[in-house]
Specification:
Diaminopimelate Epimerase, Chain A, domain 1; seven-stranded mixed β-sheet; single chain; alpha+beta; 18 strands; 21% helix
């Protein structure tokens, strides 16, 4: 049987969160910037539907499209396709893209460390990859600028009442809720309940609070609920166990790079995290980003 369409995809994950990478068979979409190209992918829907829907995909899968960079400082651009969104940036997906680029030889690897610059739809991401025996073993990235948009905002959630949340951007837009307000211990068996509550919080936050990015045209909504656990000291710095509720209602297996960045921006705005301080983000399955 002959196939009418063939796309080359390399499977990858970051701390359990799938972020496969398209390395061939798809032409770069139209657009003057990588952001514009990502808006085309989002509105057109054809590629998203092909790689993310069953039988090839599912809500567990994210897929990244490599594109030539628009910024001359970058070695490669990439567009992130999540189950229901085409976001400005994703930490776990960026880790997957960098790993695939180096492990597959698309970009040259230098041991023990390779420096490269990737262009996400939201902007440039500076990468430092620790490499050994032809394998990228650890990816360190510098994210796009993160910021707290609203602190201690009051939000009415049907069936719950009024809670206090923060709105922040860390490469994507988040409503940050405190797990203690809902009696969550941030344990794996609570995953479904956290996901259901998170979707309700996002819906209420978009209706009552909203978000508009100052530079990314059209990014005018809150994407995710980031359910944050209690702060604690771990390995000499702050840490918390958190859960990012990804559309249409699942938890990120990884600690969520953009969510950790948004939380760090909130903690900095609250005076709890100073420049240069470390933070360890943990998921409810104890996967970690440092």
């Amino acid at each position: 049987m002959r196939s009418r369409k063939a796309i080359q995809i390399i499977g990858c994950h970051a701390e359990g969160e799938v972020g496969d990478v398209i390395v061939g068979g798809v032409a770069a979409p139209p657009g003057a910037t990588v952001w514009d190209q990502s808006r085309f992918i989002a509105s057109d829907g054809a590629l998203r539907n092909f790689v993310l829907h069953e039988p090839r995909g599912g809500v567990f899968r994210h897929v990244n499209l490599l594109v030539p960079p628009k910024d001359p400082r970058a070695q490669m651009g990439f567009i992130i396709m999540e189950p229901e969104d085409t976001p400005p940036m994703s930490g776990s997906n960026c880790i997957c893209v960098a790993t695939v680029l180096l492990d597959s030889g698309i970009l040259p690897m230098s041991e023990p460390e390779t420096a490269l610059v990737l262009e996400a739809p939201a902007g440039l991401i500076h990468i430092r990859a620790e490499c050994r025996d032809g394998k990228a073993e650890r990816i360190i990235l510098r994210n796009v600028p993160s910021f707290a948009d609203r602190l201690d905002a009051r939000l009415d959630v049907k069936g719950i009442g009024t809670i206090t949340v923060d709105i922040a951007f860390g490469g994507d837009s988040f409503v940050m809720a405190k797990a203690a307000d809902f009696g969550f211990a941030m344990a794996p068996h609570e995953a479904r309940d956290i996901a259901v509550m998170g979707r309700r919080i996002v819906a209420a936050a978009n209706e009552q609070l909203g978000f508009k990015h100052p530079l990314l045209a059209g990014w005018n909504h809150i994407s995710f609920c980031f359910m944050r656990g209690e702060l604690e000291q771990l390995e000499g710095g702050l840490s918390s166990r958190n859960a990012c509720v990804v559309n249409p209602g699942k938890l990120d297996r990884s600690p969520t790079g953009t969510g950790c960045s948004a939380l760090m921006a909130v903690l900095h705005a609250q005076g709890l995290l100073k420049q240069g301080d470390g933070f360890i983000g943990r998921s409810i399955i104890e996967s970690r980003f440092y």
